[in-house]
Amino acid sequence: MDKPRKAFTSAKQVAELAGVSRSAVSRTFTPGASVSEETRKRVISASEKLGYHVNHLARGLLRQSSGIVCLVAADTDTPYMSRMIRMLVRSLQQAGKVAMVLESSENVDHALRQTLNYRADATVVLSGTPPQSLIRTCLDNGQRLILINRDDQLSGPHNLSLDNRGAASAALRALLGAGCRRLALVNSEAGTPSLMTRERAFVEEAEKEGLEVVVTRNGHTSYEAGALGARRLLSSREHPDGVFCVTDLLACGFMDAARQEFGLTIPDQLSVIGFDDIEQAGWSSYRLTTFSPNVAALAGRVVELATMAGGAEESHRDLIEVPLVRRDTVRQS
Amino acid sequence: MDKPRKAFTSAKQVAELAGVSRSAVSRTFTPGASVSEETRKRVISASEKLGYHVNHLARGLLRQSSGIVCLVAADTDTPYMSRMIRMLVRSLQQAGKVAMVLESSENVDHALRQTLNYRADATVVLSGTPPQSLIRTCLDNGQRLILINRDDQLSGPHNLSLDNRGAASAALRALLGAGCRRLALVNSEAGTPSLMTRERAFVEEAEKEGLEVVVTRNGHTSYEAGALGARRLLSSREHPDGVFCVTDLLACGFMDAARQEFGLTIPDQLSVIGFDDIEQAGWSSYRLTTFSPNVAALAGRVVELATMAGGAEESHRDLIEVPLVRRDTVRQS
DNA sequence: TTGTACGCGTTATCAC
DNA sequence: GTGATAACGCGTACAA
User: Fold this and answer.
1) Is the CB of A77 under 7 A from strand D?
2) A89 close contact with B: CB closer than 8 A
3) Whole-prediction pTM value?
4) Which of A12, A84, A116, A198 is 20 to 30 A away from residue A161, measured at CA?
């Protein structure tokens, strides 16, 4: 459709200008190939004059690797997700790969197919659960597949998860340690695997202590949903005194509503714990005690999996630690 | 390096399984090509069995278009930038393109070269100022170049800018309308073109009214820098009563410090205006009056430029409107 | 409608 | 160290 546009410079043109063969040009740009200093100079000079850049599309055709790693995600403008993506993009770039970002909110299927169309070396799925058949297709085609925080029992792909259970358990201990007895949990209706794991684990651990947990789930995983949760939970006189919000965004909305609409003091009358350690959690209006996933470690692990020599592809399953960052929303005893 | 991995299915294999020629396969996946219903069926069936997906890399070799659009940016985890990127990724995807994200904070040069290596149809530069020579190279190679909010006078590429001057002027009018007389502006030391334009325009407009503006610039464009700005500005007894923060992030930090460290009431003792309309600006702790760039319109314009038939490439220069969203941080008179 | 042959820009292999 | 040649997976002009 857009045919009549200027074409990119090719190695052939460089070779002609430099008065050498095309292979000489290729060798010049291949690390570890043997070229004489003389020809090298002439090639470099010619390419700069012409603005030549090696065509990675053509190179990817020959080699088995395109250098592309796809990031499939939804809600990419969420503080947590955008941090994740940034870390992945940076780490991949430093490892000599490039990141292609696909939005999966509209259509996970389509996104994953794009992944195959572009012969990505690996695909990282951050949101959405792709159908098992497509997963198989990716794997069968030799494309590495890395699932983040999908606690589903899909076999084949690598699985990296945050230690949601461990965090939920630590949240409970922290709240109990602060003297909380009337526990609650704020969740959304998203039903994401990691969110549901946090909820279940927290409730189960509380049951072991003989305590019941009031659970509320509202709308999307957003600030507003947190505020809504507060309105649901705090209108009764015997309101909770210890709340685990499965996401910082929920926690921020919850706290704002608790303070401004119900006049509660945090942490004196109400202790709150979040999850994600988004930037806002550190803001002085919140100073939220929360779990801080080691995103850098996760990104490092992803790069490792995405770049490793393709051999026996056993399905890895890693758990990333999530330390608790104590700020000012849980009473110190 | 990773040779011994399973290879992707090729059209050849599909052709063999379906018992047709390779061109038949190619035609099946080319919209508007003439294939009989019979062969079409057999090809589709065979490709599904083999999990075949057209190789866009090879296709990009033939056609003039790779379908790839590069997004070059820094600070991609900032609320504003991540919203921008999300909109662009979505819009491009809907237009049948894919987005490749390059981090430019380390090395703008390298990022832009990657852009050429992957034969991107277009490149969108969201941060950083690439050297003019590289810009020329991109253009000469027929790669469309779209600069966002770079008010530099670079010729050649398309330029999309928010109406920073208009917004600064509107900010001044709003503050004057609220009865403010002691004006200040909070900026960072980043020196980004758009930020500097907002500052200059605000100061100039104020001068026309015979008013002086106290300007403070601190650190990066962040929450902390805003808090720092507050400490600089509010320690004197005759502190400002109307402040334009060139970014919402700065405004949030400024407000928190103003309220918590100086005990000021907003908007009664102090009016504040921000810029970007990040999500947090709407949170009930801030309710910030701010400028809300029409990101969707901008993304739409970008897609238009990135996908248009390549003809006479005149350097476009568009201004995107930035309406003021009135919330609760400017006193109503 | 279908198949054959060629070219897109690379790199790897092989003689020289 | 260098240049010819084959091959990668695909689209398409051409002939059938």
Assistant:
1) no
2) yes
3) 0.95
4) A116
